[in-house]
Amino acid sequence: MKFHQIKALVAVHQTGSLSEASQALHVTQPALSRSIKELEGELGLSLMQRSHKGMTLTDEGRRLIRHAQSSMESLRRLQLEAENIKDMQVGEVTVGVTSLTAVLKGLGESITAFQIRNPRVCIRLIELRPYQIIQQIRDGTLDFAITSQQHTQRLNLDWESLSRMPGLVVCRKTHPLRAARSLRHLLQASWVSLDAIHDHSSQFYQMFEDNHIQPPARITECSSVLLALHLLHHSDAFMTLSEAGLDNMLTQGLSNELVQVRVEESIPEYPIYLVCTDRHSLTTSARDLYYEVRASLSTSEPLRT
């Protein structure tokens, strides 16, 4: 199995046609087709098929494509690391954050300090939901991430615990149920969830499961903190939020209109983790930024005004 064969498979999958893939790779269509056929022959599997949508993966191809993409990403990192060795501290680092971890005090300062010392390193910061972060760590899109989800051993990733942050139930100050003292009194109300509704590892889902309460029926899923706070401001909805999210100076104008609902049930904390495939396999630039962020956030507090 040769790398140009894997590269051909990934390119055809991404473009959906032999002609576009051949242009992207700067090879002829017959050469590209031959590479895929050679790969199919070595594996003993049919990987691509023609359809009305162009070239698509077979069932076998769909099962293997993630591994092919991971191989491509590993080679990209190898090339970056080789450049680092030849000319120290060049390349790029891609870091994932959640809406909660993006407002942690010290994160921005640590990234800025790294940039000043390493002006030739390109840093990409991407805000994602926790489950999306795990997907992109596993397929190699992210070098590492600062996430706010429960640590799950079975994912076989490299997790490092940094801190835990209190969670709150909030609503607008004039909400008719703002004085409720139990989640059970709020099950018929509307809720806004920053997490994916069907993500059972999420803080929102765990809040009800840990207290042996069925989740409410009316839930609006919203990945944007700003939009979620707008929804609360203009409706009779509830949501869970970290203290960092409530006190974040970027949302201060809206959070001033919210009030904590002091329910008797326990509200799960938000765990803060650094996560990657293997911190010892990071490129030099990614590893240096990883430890810079770790040093800053290990003693961090929520970003406050």
Automatic annotation (TrEMBL):
PROSITE patterns: HTH_LYSR
GO CC annotation: cytosol
GO molecular function: DNA binding; DNA-binding transcription factor activity
Pfam families noted in UniProt: HTH_1, LysR_substrate
InterPro entries tied to this protein: HTH-type_LysR_regulators (IPR050950), LysR_HTH_N (IPR000847), LysR_subst-bd (IPR005119), WH-like_DNA-bd_sf (IPR036388), WH_DNA-bd_sf (IPR036390)
Coiled coil: none
Ranges for domain HTH lysR-type: 1-58
Annotated keywords: DNA-binding, Transcription, Transcription regulation
Alphabetical list of PANTHER family matching this protein: HTH-TYPE TRANSCRIPTIONAL REGULATOR YBHD (PTHR30419), NITROGEN ASSIMILATION TRANSCRIPTIONAL ACTIVATOR-RELATED (PTHR30419:SF8)
Family: Belongs to the LysR transcriptional regulatory family.
Protein name, per record: LysR family transcriptional regulator
Source species of the chain: Pseudomonas putida
Lineage: Bacteria, Pseudomonadati, Pseudomonadota, Gammaproteobacteria, Pseudomonadales
